[in-house]
Amino acid sequence: MTGQVEKNDLEQMMNSVHNGFMGHMGINEAQFGKLVKLSQEEVLLGASKDITFKMAVKNGKGHASASQTTAWISISGYFEITSPDEGTWNVIVKDGNNTILSQTGVKKGQRIDIIYKTGFSVNLSLDATWSESKDTTLAANIRVTY
């Protein structure tokens, strides 16, 4: 019987530590599960990624958004437009209300540096305005190191 009591005491203690950790971090069970999953992937080990990005632009304006669990990582890198050849761009990238990047007059091939520390997750939005009032596809390379 004492073995059973000790096991229950240990389980209660582990649950208390677990709940205390989650309370301190301000996360719930679902978010904790995502952190566990992330810890098993390369993202917490540090790496670099090259991302090819394409966005439809209608009448000179385009918008895209994405969300991702990131677990407070610091990222650095650059954003570079690869197409179209003509014109210039005004580019704004936000994470919620935080501006990550705001650049005007960007030309094809010009690299824009990015340095940002995320929260538990990012809710990215990209708005791009082209100097031409017509339809196209904005293509870009994004290189990030974390």
What do you see in this structure?
This protein has two domains: 2-37, no CATH class; 46-145, Jelly Rolls (Sandwich). The chain starts with a helix and ends with a strand. A hairpin with a 2-residue loop joins β4 (89-95) and β5. It has a four-stranded antiparallel beta sheet with strand order 1-8-3-6, with no helix packed on it. The chain has a four-stranded antiparallel beta sheet with strand order 2-7-4-5. It is of the alpha+beta class. The radius of gyration is 22 Å and the shape is elongated. 10% of the residues are buried. The chain has helices spanning 2-25, 29-39, and strands at 48-57, 61-69, 74-83, 89-95, 98-106, 111-117, 121-130, 136-145.
Brief characterization of the structure:
With 146 residues, this protein is α+β, with helices and mostly antiparallel strands. Helix content is 24%, strand content 49%.
Instruction: Report the CATH C-level class of the largest domain.
Output: Mainly Beta
CATH architecture of the largest domain: Sandwich
Q: What integer is the average pLDDT?
A: 84
Please tell me the total number of domains: 2
What order do the strands of the largest sheet run in, or round the barrel if closed?
1-8-3-6
Major beta sheet summary: 4 strands, antiparallel
Topology:
Elements (H helix, E strand, L loop, with lengths): L1 H24 L3 H11 L8 E10 L3 E9 L4 E10 L5 E7 L2 E9 L4 E7 L3 E10 L5 E10 L1
Antiparallel strand pairs: 1-8, 2-7, 3-6, 3-8, 4-5, 4-7
